[in-house]
Amino acid sequence: MSSSPELGRSRGGGRRPGPQPGTRGLTMHITQLNHECLLHLFSFLDKDSRKSLAGTCSRLRAVFEDPALWPLLHFRSLAELTKDNFLLGPALRSLSICWHSSRVRVCSIEDWLKSAFQRSICSRHESLVNDFLLQVCDRCPNLASVTLSGCGHVTDDCLLRLLCCCPRLRALRLENCARVTNRTLAAVAAQGRALQTLHVDFCRNVSAAGLHRLRAACPRLALRAEYSAAMMPDQPQRGAAAHGTAFRKLLPS
């Protein structure tokens, strides 16, 4: 039987390319890559994907636990702070916690103005950010940038410790952090020697006088305070009539 002249030829008329010499059956498993290559691949994954891969073998677990993998951490909710899908270490340079939720409005109300229901909402997370930042203070001395948005329970004391424990901090950006006061501004003047940028936007308990003192003490500091000095600050506890002002505090006057 004669063979067809079309066998072994592609439709374009040329011969189909066969396997190249020495490449038959060539495969590579991901764990055969060196540590540096694995770090590079992991850097393209989100926190959950990194954690999932780390659970497959000890080799990938070692990559997940390498501090060099974690120079940047970004959290979009406070619940993410309680997960075990990230690592705090000396390689961390940039940290951001940006919580955009309707519950932020509740957190921003003064404690004595909150209803029992509002207090119960806040009790579930009011210490989360402060406790997390204390861990950062202990483990991340090389931190250079921190952004906190919607963190209504973060305190002056916590930020003061952050400034003391992270001497290389160059940028601190705060937005809608209701418990931040002029004490944080004074701490920046006293402890923020490396700080180049400070934002205190929509922080109602930061006053114009406090901003003026900080500008005088740190003339080279890039300071921004959108609406902060124009907002209604916290007031001493008063009668029941004061409850009508609770949500007005969230808006510039």
What does this structure look like?
This protein has 253 residues and is of the alpha/beta class. The protein has nine helices and six strands. A six-stranded parallel β-sheet has the order 1-2-3-4-5-6, with no helix packed on it. The longest helix has 12 residues.
Would you identify the regions where 5 or more consecutive residues have pLDDT less than 50?
1-11, 240-253
Separation, N- and C-terminal Cα atoms: 96 Å
Side-by-side strand order of the widest sheet: 1-2-3-4-5-6
Specify the number of helices. 9
Helix content class? 25-40%
Radius of gyration: 27 Å
Strand/helix succession: HHHEEHHHEHEHEHE
Which geometry do the CA atoms define?
globular
User: For this entry, what is the oligomeric state of its chains?
Assistant: single chain
Main β-sheet description: 6 strands, parallel
